[in-house]
Specification:
Blueprint (H helix, E strand, L loop, with lengths): L8 H15 L3 E7 L2 E8 L2 E8 L1 H14 L11 E5 L10 E8 L2 E8 L16 H12 L3 E6 L6 H14 L7 E5 L10 E4 L8 H9 L5 E4 L5 H12 L3 E5 L5 H10 L4 H7 E11 L6 E8 L3 H8 L4 H8 L7 H10 L5 H10 L4
Parallel strand pairs: 7-11, 7-12, 8-9, 8-10, 10-11
Antiparallel strand pairs: 1-2, 1-6, 2-3, 4-5, 5-6, 12-13
Helix pairs in contact: 1-2, 5-6, 7-10, 8-9, 11-12
Length: 356
């Protein structure tokens, strides 16, 4: 537990950032409550209470963080976003800052980017050998859309960076790869990366259209947030590009159900999508950190014909059972049997399939 006693609020903020950097935290949360403010860290994907501080002391800390992030300190009733750059406590890593008002004062969330900067390839993700081989098969397709889905904090971005590193290891020309992100979470040497903002003209859709004119082979789209981005991403996948992206859906059947529900031609979806991955991060069976539970589908002709017939979600869920490696529940049960995760975690995944 961190202690704020005998420290000025400004010094305490620096102490929290140093502790987060030292322990490899990905997030820091300052959460106001009726009796003060809780400071929490997220380490290895798991929340951990750092300390509890008095409300008036916490307000000064929030003000200090807003100053560091270049935000307006007098605006306390609206949300603000900013960034802290070059702070020595986190070894200069960029910190994304989000502030929002609550009933008990301002809440602030800090996302520390690039804390895990060591090279990570697919085989370093603690996945079964069969899943590593399946992901590499997905990358072998020179065109089409590879979609990753899963809840926030499930490791999708880590997997995407591992996929890009695999392409570079296979000697794909770095100049032929562009990533479009919000924000850029890890800089990869040699490739072009651009940060977008939906609040400006440089949106995902606009950046993707520009990337398609750059004669590249692989485009990473951080997230398909709306129908317009999905449409442009489909166009890119159908026009000779390999697109790697994320999509908000509960599992593999839900990815297809949502695409179909958004009104896109079933035949185009069946043709464009060359791989779908769904994953969760859960506590390891030995209590040391977290491990990914992953299921993946490489569509075959039978699956494409099925999707082209515009099935509903119930039909999709029934059909996916024919593809063992695409069933997240079965993947969790297998990891439980080998001791990688506990029975409790396996049951949580099996019971939560389809949650978004």
């Amino acid at each position: 537990m961190l202690s704020h006693h005998k420290e000025e609020p400004q010094e305490f903020v620096d102490s929290v950032l140093r502790e987060a950097g030292k322990r490899g935290a990905s997030d820091i949360y300052w959460i106001p409550s009726p009796d003060g403010m809780d400071v929490r860290l997220r380490i290895d994907g798991l929340p951990e209470e750092a300390t509890h501080i008095p409300a008036d002391y916490g307000e000064i800390c929030i003000t200090r963080l807003k100053v560091l992030a270049g935000l307006l300190t007098y605006r306390t009733t609206v949300a603000q976003d900013g960034a802290i750059r070059g702070h020595t406590g986190t070894n200069g890593a960029e910190i994304r800052v989000s502030v929002m008002p609550t009933a008990h004062g301002e809440r602030i969330a800090l996302r520390i980017l690039g804390q895990d900067s060591a090279p990570r390839y697919i085989e370093n993700l603690n996945l079964p050998d069969s899943m590593v081989a399946l992901l590499k098969r997905m990358l072998a397709a020179p065109t089409g859309m590879l979609i990753l889905t899963g809840p926030t904090g499930s490791g999708k971005t880590t997997t995407i960076y591992a996929l890009v590193r695999e392409l570079l290891r296979q000697e794909q020309d770095p100049a032929s790869i562009i990533t479009i992100e919000d924000p850029i979470e890890c800089e990869l040497p040699g490739i072009s990366q651009t940060a977008v903002s939906e609040n400006r003209e440089w949106s995902y859709a606009n950046a993707l259209r520009a990337a398609m004119r750059q004669d590249v082979k692989t485009i990473v789209v951080g997230e398909m947030r709306d129908r317009e981005v999905v449409k442009v991403t489909l166009d890119a996948a159908l026009s000779g590009h390999r697109v790697i992206t994320t999509y908000h859906a509960g599992d593999i059947p839900a990815v297809y159900a949502r695409l179909l529900h958004q009104g896109f031609e079933p035949f185009l979806i069946a043709t464009a999508v060359t791989g779908v991955v769904t994953q969760r991060l859960v506590p390891a069976g030995n209590g040391q950190g977290r491990v990914p539970v992953m299921a993946a589908l490489i569509p075959d002709d039978e699956w494409r014909d099925f999707v082209a017939a515009n099935p509903g979600l119930t039909q999709l869920r029934r059909q996916i059972s024919e593809y063992v490696e695409a069933d997240l529940s079965q993947a969790a049960q297998e990891m439980m049997r080998c001791g990688a995760i506990s029975q409790v975690e396996a049951l949580k995944i099996s019971g939560g399939i389809g949650d978004t």
